[in-house]
Amino acid sequence: MAFKTDGGGIAFKCNDIKLLCKASTWGTKLSQLHRQKGAVRIITYSLPRVEYIKEQFNRRPSNIYIICHEKFVDVANQVKALYPEICFAINAEVHSKVLLIEPHTVYVSSANFGSSRWHETAIGLHSKEAHDWYIENSFLPLWKSSKPV
Fold first, then answer.
1. CB atoms within 10 A of CB 123
2. Does the structure show a pLDDT above 80 at 31?
3. Cβ neighbours of residue 103 closer than 8 Å, sequence gap 6 or more
4. Contact status, residue 21 vs residue 119, Cβ threshold 8 Å
5. Residue 18 — pLDDT band, cuts 50, 70, 90?
6. What rounded mean pLDDT belongs to the chain?
7. Fold held by 19-148
8. Which one of 71, 84, 99, 133 has the fewest CB atoms closer than 10 angstroms to its CB?
9. DSSP secondary structure, 2-48, as one string
Protein backbone atom coordinates (compact mmCIF):
# COMPACT_ATOMS: atom_id res chain seq x y z
CA MET A 1 0.00 0.00 0.00
CA ALA A 2 1.41 3.39 -0.99
CA PHE A 3 1.47 6.38 1.36
CA LYS A 4 -0.99 9.16 0.56
CA THR A 5 -0.92 12.85 1.39
CA ASP A 6 -3.54 13.57 4.02
CA GLY A 7 -4.01 15.59 7.19
CA GLY A 8 -1.19 13.68 8.87
CA GLY A 9 1.56 14.18 6.33
CA ILE A 10 2.83 14.39 2.79
CA ALA A 11 3.58 11.50 0.45
CA PHE A 12 6.50 12.31 -1.83
CA LYS A 13 9.10 10.66 -4.02
CA CYS A 14 12.73 10.80 -2.97
CA ASN A 15 15.74 9.15 -4.56
CA ASP A 16 18.26 10.21 -1.90
CA ILE A 17 17.48 8.77 1.53
CA LYS A 18 19.90 7.52 4.15
CA LEU A 19 19.10 5.54 7.29
CA LEU A 20 21.59 6.47 9.98
CA CYS A 21 22.53 4.88 13.27
CA LYS A 22 25.21 5.38 15.92
CA ALA A 23 27.91 6.76 13.60
CA SER A 24 26.00 9.87 12.54
CA THR A 25 26.11 12.72 15.05
CA TRP A 26 24.74 16.24 15.06
CA GLY A 27 28.34 17.37 14.58
CA THR A 28 28.50 15.31 11.38
CA LYS A 29 25.16 16.64 10.16
CA LEU A 30 26.26 20.24 10.81
CA SER A 31 29.89 19.84 9.68
CA GLN A 32 29.29 21.64 6.37
CA LEU A 33 27.37 24.50 7.95
CA HIS A 34 29.88 27.09 6.75
CA ARG A 35 29.12 26.05 3.15
CA GLN A 36 25.34 26.30 3.54
CA LYS A 37 23.75 29.60 2.60
CA GLY A 38 20.14 28.86 3.50
CA ALA A 39 18.43 28.79 6.86
CA VAL A 40 19.10 26.02 9.35
CA ARG A 41 16.16 25.07 11.54
CA ILE A 42 16.39 22.78 14.53
CA ILE A 43 13.63 21.33 16.65
CA THR A 44 14.88 19.52 19.75
CA TYR A 45 13.63 18.66 23.19
CA SER A 46 16.89 19.48 24.94
CA LEU A 47 19.91 21.65 24.30
CA PRO A 48 23.47 20.41 24.84
CA ARG A 49 26.15 22.17 26.85
CA VAL A 50 27.08 25.62 25.60
CA GLU A 51 30.58 24.49 24.54
CA TYR A 52 29.08 21.92 22.16
CA ILE A 53 26.82 24.53 20.62
CA LYS A 54 29.79 26.87 20.17
CA GLU A 55 31.71 24.10 18.38
CA GLN A 56 28.87 23.73 15.91
CA PHE A 57 27.90 27.35 15.34
CA ASN A 58 31.32 29.00 15.28
CA ARG A 59 31.32 27.86 11.63
CA ARG A 60 28.36 30.12 10.85
CA PRO A 61 26.46 31.73 13.73
CA SER A 62 23.62 33.24 11.71
CA ASN A 63 20.41 32.29 9.90
CA ILE A 64 19.81 29.56 12.49
CA TYR A 65 16.47 28.97 14.19
CA ILE A 66 16.11 26.64 17.17
CA ILE A 67 12.98 25.54 18.99
CA CYS A 68 13.56 23.65 22.25
CA HIS A 69 11.58 22.68 25.31
CA GLU A 70 11.08 25.42 27.87
CA LYS A 71 13.15 23.47 30.44
CA PHE A 72 16.25 24.56 28.49
CA VAL A 73 15.59 28.31 28.44
CA ASP A 74 18.72 29.01 30.53
CA VAL A 75 20.99 27.37 27.94
CA ALA A 76 19.11 29.17 25.16
CA ASN A 77 19.68 32.50 26.92
CA GLN A 78 23.41 31.77 27.33
CA VAL A 79 23.81 30.91 23.66
CA LYS A 80 21.70 33.88 22.57
CA ALA A 81 24.04 36.18 24.55
CA LEU A 82 27.02 34.71 22.66
CA TYR A 83 25.33 34.59 19.25
CA PRO A 84 22.64 37.29 19.02
CA GLU A 85 21.86 36.38 15.40
CA ILE A 86 20.72 32.87 16.34
CA CYS A 87 16.96 32.83 16.90
CA PHE A 88 15.62 30.73 19.76
CA ALA A 89 12.09 29.90 20.80
CA ILE A 90 10.86 27.71 23.63
CA ASN A 91 7.77 25.56 23.75
CA ALA A 92 6.40 23.31 26.49
CA GLU A 93 5.09 20.80 23.92
CA VAL A 94 8.33 20.11 21.98
CA HIS A 95 9.71 16.59 21.92
CA SER A 96 10.63 16.05 18.24
CA LYS A 97 14.17 16.06 16.92
CA VAL A 98 14.38 17.52 13.43
CA LEU A 99 17.07 19.30 11.44
CA LEU A 100 16.10 21.24 8.31
CA ILE A 101 18.79 22.74 6.11
CA GLU A 102 17.73 24.84 3.12
CA PRO A 103 17.16 24.18 0.35
CA HIS A 104 16.35 20.46 0.61
CA THR A 105 17.89 18.55 3.54
CA VAL A 106 15.73 16.94 6.23
CA TYR A 107 16.87 14.83 9.18
CA VAL A 108 14.37 13.23 11.54
CA SER A 109 16.08 11.64 14.50
CA SER A 110 15.61 10.04 17.87
CA ALA A 111 18.59 12.09 19.16
CA ASN A 112 18.27 15.52 20.70
CA PHE A 113 20.60 18.25 19.47
CA GLY A 114 23.99 17.46 20.99
CA SER A 115 25.97 14.31 21.58
CA SER A 116 24.38 11.12 22.84
CA ARG A 117 25.63 7.90 24.35
CA TRP A 118 22.33 6.20 23.56
CA HIS A 119 21.65 4.07 20.53
CA GLU A 120 20.08 6.64 18.23
CA THR A 121 18.58 6.34 14.78
CA ALA A 122 17.87 8.95 12.13
CA ILE A 123 16.68 9.28 8.57
CA GLY A 124 18.25 11.87 6.32
CA LEU A 125 16.87 12.84 2.95
CA HIS A 126 17.25 15.38 0.21
CA SER A 127 13.88 16.57 -1.04
CA LYS A 128 12.88 20.19 -1.59
CA GLU A 129 9.25 19.10 -1.57
CA ALA A 130 9.55 17.41 1.84
CA HIS A 131 11.70 20.23 3.27
CA ASP A 132 9.31 22.97 2.20
CA TRP A 133 6.23 21.01 3.29
CA TYR A 134 7.73 20.45 6.76
CA ILE A 135 8.64 24.13 7.12
CA GLU A 136 5.14 25.24 6.17
CA ASN A 137 3.14 22.59 8.05
CA SER A 138 5.21 21.95 11.14
CA PHE A 139 8.11 24.30 11.79
CA LEU A 140 6.39 27.64 11.15
CA PRO A 141 3.20 26.81 13.11
CA LEU A 142 5.35 25.56 16.01
CA TRP A 143 7.55 28.67 15.82
CA LYS A 144 4.47 30.93 15.92
CA SER A 145 3.11 29.12 18.98
CA SER A 146 6.47 29.29 20.81
CA LYS A 147 7.90 31.99 23.05
CA PRO A 148 10.91 33.88 21.66
CA VAL A 149 14.11 33.95 23.73
1. 12
2. no
3. 38, 128, 131
4. yes
5. confident
6. 91
7. Endonuclease; Chain A (3.30.870)
8. 84
9. ----BTTB-----S-EEEE-TT--HHHHTTTGGG--S-EEEE-S---
Buried b (16+ CB within 10 A) or exposed e, 17-30: eeebeeebbbeebb
Rounded to whole angstroms, the Cα distance separating 31 from 131 reads 19
pLDDT digits (tens, 9 = 90+) for 66-103: 999 999 999 999 999 999 999 999 999 999 999 999 99
Q: Which distant-in-sequence residues (6+ apart) come within 8 Å of 58 by Cβ?
A: none
Element (DSSP H or E) covering residue 91: strand 87-91
Question: Where along the chain do its domains lie?
Answer: 19-148
Q: Tell me the residue type at 117.
A: R
CA distance 89 to 146: 6
